[in-house]
Amino acid sequence: MIDLRDLVREDGQHLFAWRREPEVNRWMCDQPPETQAVHERWLDGLLADPDRRGWIITRSGSPAGFLMLSGLTNCNRRAEWGWYIGDPDARGRGVGRAAQALGLDKAFDELGLEKVWAEVLAENEAALKAQGAAGFRREGYLRSHALKDGEFRDVVLLAILAEEWRARRASVRKSLAGSHLIAA
Ligand SMILES: CC(C)(COP(=O)(O)OP(=O)(O)OC[C@H]1O[C@@H](n2cnc3c(N)ncnc32)[C@H](O)[C@@H]1OP(=O)(O)O)[C@@H](O)C(=O)NCCC(=O)NCCS
Fold it and tell me: How far apart are CA 124 and CA 5, in angstroms?
C-alpha cells in the first residue's frame, strides 16, 4: 500500500541519498546538494517555510520517495508540484501514480488549491505519462529552459485544475485500488 506522511527532520538522510541518486538527479532541473551541511540547511528551510510542504511517499510503511508543493502562500491558490521515487526498487510499479493521486487530494481538498503545475524535462517519459494519466494537461513547451549538467534542456509545462482532478479522481482511484496500491 502507498501512503503519504508529513516530512520530519529525521527523513533528512533518505532525502540526501535520494536527491544525489543518478536516476533522480537526471530529471531534476536544479543540482543536488554537494554536502550534508548544504542539504540540512535546505531541509531546515523547508520545514520552517509556510510556502512549501513536503511529504514522504511510503510503500508498505517504508520511505520510498518525496513529494513537495511550493508556492502555498501566494494569492493565486496555485502551487508547483515536485516529486521523485527515491528507492530504485519502487520505480515503475505504480508507486508514483498512487502517490500522485494522494498528493492531488491533499492539494485540492486539504489545502484548497485551484491549480497545481509542474515543469518536467521534455525527455522525462515516466513523469509525463504518470502526470498525464492523472489529468495534468500540457500548457506550454519551454525551449532551452533548464541548464542541466552544462546543457540547455527543453521543459514541458504541465498543470491540472481542481475541477479536472475532481472529474477524474474516482476512475484513477478505482484503478489504483484494483492494483492494491491504495485503499478503495
Ligand atoms: C517519474 C516518477 C515519479 C514516476 O513514478 P513511478 O512509480 O516510477 O511510475 P509509475 O510506475 O506510477 O508509472 C507511471 C507511468 O510511467 C510509465 N513509466 C514508468 N517508468 C518509466 C520509464 N522508465 N520510461 C518510460 N515510462 C515509464 C509507466 O508505464 C506508467 O505509464 P502507464 O500508466 O501508461 O502505464 C518516477 O519514475 C521517478 O521518480 N523518476 C525519477 C525522478 C523523476 O523523474 N521525478 C519527476 C521529475 S518531474
Answer: 26
Atom of ligand 1 nearest to the CA of 133: 33
Taking the mean position of all CA atoms in its chain, how far away is CA 16?
A: 16
Q: Compute, in angstroms, the gap from residue 91 CA to the centroid of ligand 1.
A: 7
Residue 167: the pLDDT is 97
List domains and CATH numbers for the chain.
Answer: 2-178 (3.40.630.30)
As a whole number of angstroms, the distance between CA 4 and CA 66 comes to 9
CB of 172 closer than 8 Å to CB of 86? no
Residue nearest to atom 23 of ligand 1 (CA): 126
CA 68–ligand 1 middle distance (angstroms):
17
**What's the order of all strands across the beta sheet hosting 2-6?**
2-6, 52-59, 62-70, 78-85, 115-121, 151-161, 137-148
* pTM, full prediction: 0.96
